[in-house]
């Protein structure tokens, strides 16, 4: 669970909102539990790192707020710099218009550069009741919405079947 509020070095309040929604900052979004998993996936880009975060919120309203904050803040924050994994990094954000998955969703492309290394990230945050699913595809070569879409749809199905079973 992310108990530390994310700060940005440049980009302003919208960029801080984006970082905290992306990280599901516990105090802002009433996070009660979080599980993260990562794995390598063979994609059209070669091998990508895919990460899935499953976050439980105190209410469906808090889960929805997380998605809405990510959607609106990514539109108001084209660039930011922040301390990422101990070093300063730059992020360029591009929200994508994609069909809604789950109860609500937002998809953003994030180009990151840190210490000269570029990583292209496609991420989707999806609300299913009082849960948010965040799926990331990290690639050094190309943005891959297809992987994010496929993994998100499967995860939404699992969460829905588990909560009704």
Q: Structural class of the secondary structure composition?
A: alpha+beta
Q: What is the topology, as strand order, of the major beta sheet?
A: 1-2-7-6-5-4-3
Question: Roughly how many Å is the radius of gyration?
Answer: 15 Å
Counting copies of identical and different chains, the oligomeric state is single chain
* Largest β sheet strand count, sense and barrel closure: 7 strands, antiparallel
Shape: globular
Instruction: Give the SSE order as H and E letters.
Output: HHEEHEEEEEH
Give the DSSP E fraction (strand runs of 2 or more residues).
35-45%
Tally of alpha and pi helices: 4
Mean pLDDT: 88
- Distance linking N and C termini: 26 Å
Structural commentary:
It is a single chain. The protein has 165 residues and is α+β, with helices and mostly antiparallel strands. The chain is 31% helix and 44% strand. It contains four helices and seven strands. It has helices at residues 13-22, 26-29, 60-76, 145-164, and strands at 31-43, 46-57, 79-84, 87-96, 104-114, 117-128, 131-139. The chain has a seven-stranded antiparallel β-sheet with strand order 1-2-7-6-5-4-3, with helices on both faces. Strand 5 (104-114) and strand 6 (117-128) form a beta hairpin. Helix 1 packs across helix 3 (60-76). The longest helix has 20 residues, at 145-164. It is globular and about 45 Å long. It starts with 12 loop residues before the first helix and ends with a helix. The mean pLDDT is 88.
